[in-house]
Amino acid sequence: MNVAEVWRVARTPLSLLVLLGLLGFGAWWGYTNVMKPPPPPPVEPCVPEQVEQLESSQVLVNVFNGGAERGKAAEVGQALEAAGFSVATVGNTDERVTRTVVVGVTTEDPAVRLTLEHFQEADPRSDARPDGVVDVLIGSEYAGMVGDAPESIDIESETACLAPTPTPAVG
Q1: Which of 10, 71, 92, 100 could hold 122 in an S-S bridge, CB 3.0 to 4.6 Å?
Q2: Alpha-carbon span 80 to 68, nearest angstrom
Q3: How far apart are CA 117 and CA 55, in angstroms?
Q4: Which residue segment(s) compose the domain that 4 sits in?
Q5: Considering the domain boundaries, does residue 42 fall inside one?
Q6: Which of 91, 138, 132 is nearest to 109 (CA)?
Q7: pTM given for the model
């Protein structure tokens, strides 16, 4: 048998093996891409508004328990709602903190400053978030809330970047 005869006999099975390999790769690629979780929705940036005073009702807050005491985030969330804040999320965080931490776009952000006024022994932290939401991480050495905290603060720049108002779900 010469090379031409061997090629003529092996050409069809070899072509079928290559096509079967391509089909297998395509099935694997399609399955892995279909099973990926969907990407998170894009974060809506904060909305700059002209205000002379920032009211607590204009601040959107998430409260997370970073300590060991059960139910502390829910308790603090209710206290913040009673103080006029809009509380979006209450839950736990994997980050363990000892003191209460108030997280926002900058430590000088009016929403962060107003939220800090409501906590005893709280530390500010910035993370350059674009949405204007303030996170409160309740630590294991939570010192409590301030009883006579202000419900508003004056804004020197007269512009505050407020979190977008959540749209109600249409059902």
Answers
A1: 100
A2: 20
A3: 12
A4: 1-36
A5: no
A6: 132
A7: 0.72
